[in-house]
Amino acid sequence: MKNKIFLIIIIILCLNTVYAQDKNADAAEKAGIPQKEKVCFFNYQDKSTNDKYRYLSYIIPKSVGADLKNIGNYEIINIPDKIDYLDKNSSAEERAKFINGVSRRGREYKADYVIAGYYNIEENNLIVYSQILDIERQEIIYVDETENKISAIILEMVEEVTDDIKEELLKAREIREELREEERKRKEAEKRANTSPFLGLYDFFNGMTFGVNYGKMHFMDSWTEDFTDTEILTFYLSYCLGDASFLKDTSFIRNLGFTAKYDYFSTRNEDYFYHSSEYLDFTGYGLNIFYLFRINDMFNLIVSGGGGFSEIEYLYEGEYDYETGTEIIPGYSKTDNDFYYNAAFSVNFIFSNLKVESGVSYYYIQYPSDSISFFSVYFGLGYRI
Question: Nearest-CA neighbor of 374 among 230, 239, 210, 163?
Fold first, then answer.
């Protein structure tokens, strides 16, 4: 009868402790206490010869777990099962096998630590043995045995066991933090050692596209009478500001970009009656600003405009009398450096690193004798770094 009353008191006190620690846990969460570590308790083994102390098998881990949870730094899981206690003198093979098996069970509950043990009754003394498995470090921590008279209040015994386990857990946490800090520093040092000095430069050029456009051009105004339509080649290097990591989340600037370009075309005019020819070679070095209208990840509309500096070589071979072969107008050549401007509208399709583009462009060249203007319909391929 006395043992039954004693058991009821213990259960009531445990329930009261659980209720109190729940309140404290809520307060700890509001106070911003760091993430709790998860501790998994298994029932202790009863190695006594008296069945009347069998209830301590679950009372000890339940009570110790409740006290730890009440601290606010631990999340407790009680498993109604038992695991073996690994003797300190066990062989390396037995130790490895034990750690592997218990770790596997602990990971089922995503635990950081697994705590178990056993107790015995010797000459009216209750002796409790506990051990902690640190799953992350794969290390067994033996807690000093706790001994007290069986006649003493069981809660005093639980408090002693709790203090011993708490002390070992705090030591384990400190070691963990030190090891994690060392690992963090090691990875940072390794990263610095393996980082190319050109990484920043690569990051800057990441997203840059180089390619070539081929266009069929048509002269406008009086130049349609002087020269035949021809082809224009454009070699370009473009960069969209949205590819820069610090600008990719902006709303307007991310769609802006720049294109450095090299334009070239050559055309001629034949006068078969006078056996005369004219040649016009154009080389342009320009810079355009463009704006992307992003339809989706693969398809964009582009509006661009800009200008640059051009070099135009003009060659006139002169006119000859067909019958006499005499020169009527002497030939000559000249080179002019002029500004030019252009605007374009295009669409592009992006397939991984390949860019396919098609559009219409307009050019205006400030040629001294008579300004040159033309438009072209072009198609191009580019490669995106």
Answer: 230
